[in-house]
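Repro case for the chain-ordering regression, as requested:
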Amino acid sequence: MSEPLTHDQVQHVAKLSRLRLSADEIAQYADQLSAVLGYMDKLNELDVTGVEPMAHPLDVTNVLREDEPVDGLPVDAVLDNAPARDDPFFRVPKVIGDGSGA
Amino acid sequence: MTELRDAIASRQASATDGVRTYLDRIEAQNDTINAYHEVYADRSLERAKRVDDGQLTGPLAGVPIAIKDVLCTDWGKTTCGSRMLGEYRSPFTATAVARLESAGAIILGKTNMDEFAMGSSCEHGAWGAVRNPWSHDHVPGGSSGGSAAAMSADLCAAAIGSDTGGSIRQPAAFCGVVGLKPSYGRISRWGLVAYASSLDQIGPFTRDVADAALLLQVMAGRDERDSTCASADVPDYVAALDEPVNDLRIGVAKQYLSDSNDPAVAKAVDGAIEAYRAAGASIVEVDLPHTEYGVPTYYLVATAEASSNLARYDGVHYGHRAADPDDLIDLYSKSRAEGFGDEVKRRIMLGTYALSTGYYDAYYLKALKVRRLIRRDFDEAFKQCDVILCPTTPTPAFRIGEKSDDPLTMYMADVYTVNANLAGIPGVSLPGGFTDTGLPVGVQLLGPVFEEAKLLRIARVFERATGYHQQKPNRD
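-- result from build under test --
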């Protein structure tokens, strides 16, 4: 059986997920994710030795089209949705910080 | 739907009047039902005029259709029921929607949904709960609940949804309409905002099976823009409905006939078995031993894919951006915390955990192996039968608020729908009767991959034998 998630583990997953969570949310997700993961342990009833993983329902690989150039989306149309723009670029805050944001 | 189309084509009715009728009904009922988030009245009337002027033709000319707010259009907003995309205007149109419009359809508006298609009740969208037209205290199901409710309440002639773990079939069952999830890869996903890319599939909500066949016909087929869209030929689904049904073998699996099913659900399935027997079919017992592992497998695969797909919402390229971030990482984390709702965060966290170092093998990889076992169950079963008959859901629609505090209970209710997505096979939910209190109950048929023609033909046998699909909720 899986151990219940600690608040530190949930905080770590939130950081990996790029989600800033409140202490209340951390506590709530610790309980709920532990319950869901406990239920996932049901899969351990099955012996899957030698079973090929199935990542996708279709057996298709390397679907290619003719290598002919086509126009992409117009830059202006794409930037219309940007929260902040500095044509022809997306504008972001300074990238170099202490990195502890999440 | 086809009656309206034929009346328009023969000039017995005008497309403009048709659109106005639906717009009036939406005006009268949408404040209560909340099926639509956005209605395109002017654009719909302009297109209707072009149909009436003979400039816009095709197999769906003048047919007013609602689409789930997860399908991109280069007009209006595409919000996915999320504050994250509350003001998002797509620069392109989904292939499925473009094909509907090329066939002459009129897109009336976009329907409410659980945020990013994550949910089974339509209580989780940013724009409020959707109500079941049969009982306003009850959920319409989800995540395509707005489309199902719009179809059920006659607020469109047909509706489009998406189904990742049952999000077309479950709301179709709750709202008493036909809901088809085609095989994975049958309809292009280009322009369908991704939840779980190896499971997502677009499909129609309709009053009857023939309408579903026609909409599938229009939307299906290869698309250069989606490499996971199958190149398999698209048969004439409409013509195939009239082919003879001989030596029909209906599979029934004990794993789907649990004692914990609601009595009305059990009765509907028994009724369907009797209807097929009366139509000359033989009932074959099949074994789907891994059925009960579907929900845990689904919630690992789907959330893992979601955690990756939803990484794109970063507050930089489009969507919500938080104010005054400390740095770039803080911009991401605050924007996502503010833009996403509770269920979406929960699934991103679950998927991230399942993919993280130390847990990947135990959770994600294990789930992919069990997924293979579930697919093999179906491959074996379809050697013995043409389609599998089962409930769509264990219960009819539940009350608004009844389950929303308990994620695990909500997930378990997907037990009869998720396996079709994991295996990639088609499934259709059909109106199968009613509870004592008048709520609709669905029955489901599952078919072999890319055998939609057969699936729909067999579905119509049931529809014609019972007539449940002709019943509509009272409009008061």
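Ordering looks correct now. Chain A is about 30% helix and 5% strand.
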